[in-house]
């Protein structure tokens, strides 16, 4: 029998690195929000350099330059975490199905985000590019979450744990959550926090687009309540749906307070963090609708018992 290769990394380390990708990608969303909320979006007015002569911020650029340059440095932290995760995935034995493409996608996604960030600066913080930057961050969180869940699962096939109708309701809830995020990007693009005093806005009426965003939030909360009650009714796992509902209510409260208090920067930053948490909680609900069963290895055939011939007596 062939002896299995010895793994160079433990499954615990692999899980921690995968989880670190989730935390890091959520953190850079928040720090990116801080850049915009402090009007530091053009603190480094060019890319990839911070100025035409220097890759780093200078003392003459003041606080805005330091904030923007600090956020750029965080990208290298993300690359290090994602790169370490990819190396750990490659070194782990037995090799997990589907894990390598996910780990590679995280690395490539972070590199793509750096390029989009550069385009954002080059286009003077155009709201459409800023919005794309945020949406790609949500896609990166999706891939990082899928990676974390995959390294924690066995290599068997996926088995649904809820009825087909509830799986459909779950996907509708995921679509509503994504719509809330996309329209929220449009709300931000119409508001006062442009990242720089001279940055343009998207031209949408803030009150109208905020009302559309609120309507979608009400739809999402209603879908989540219905999904939670339906899961409980059929005896399916419902904790993830309840968690999503609680996160949505907290996020909704922050959203209403920030709207009626003229969008203070601190609450807007918390709302951006809340967007990440809502999206991650939505993904947790989606993953809770199935589980993977370990692959059953074929058992070697049991040898037939040998029969001792009876001695003949005389």
Give a quick summary of the entry:
With 314 residues, the chain is mainly alpha-helical. Helix content is 66%, strand content 2%.
Structural notes for this entry:
The chain starts with 10 loop residues before the first helix and ends in a 22-residue tail after the last strand. The relative contact order is 0.12. With 314 residues, the chain is mainly α. The mean pLDDT is 88. The longest helix is centred in the first third of the chain and has 30 residues, at 62-91. Helix 1 runs antiparallel to helix 8 (265-287) and helix 6 packs antiparallel against helix 7. It has eight helices and two strands; from the N terminus they run H-H-H-H-E-H-H-H-H-E. It has helices spanning 11-37, 62-91, 99-122, 127-151, 164-190, 206-233, 239-260, 265-287; strands at 158-160, 290-292. The chain is flat, with a radius of gyration of 25 Å. The chain has a two-stranded antiparallel ribbon with strand order 1-2.
Write the layout of secondary structure elements.
Layout: H1 11-37, H2 62-91, H3 99-122, H4 127-151, E1 158-160, H5 164-190, H6 206-233, H7 239-260, H8 265-287, E2 290-292
Antiparallel strand pairs: 1-2
Helix pairs in contact: 1-2, 1-4, 1-8, 2-3, 3-4, 4-5, 4-8, 5-6, 5-8, 6-7, 7-8
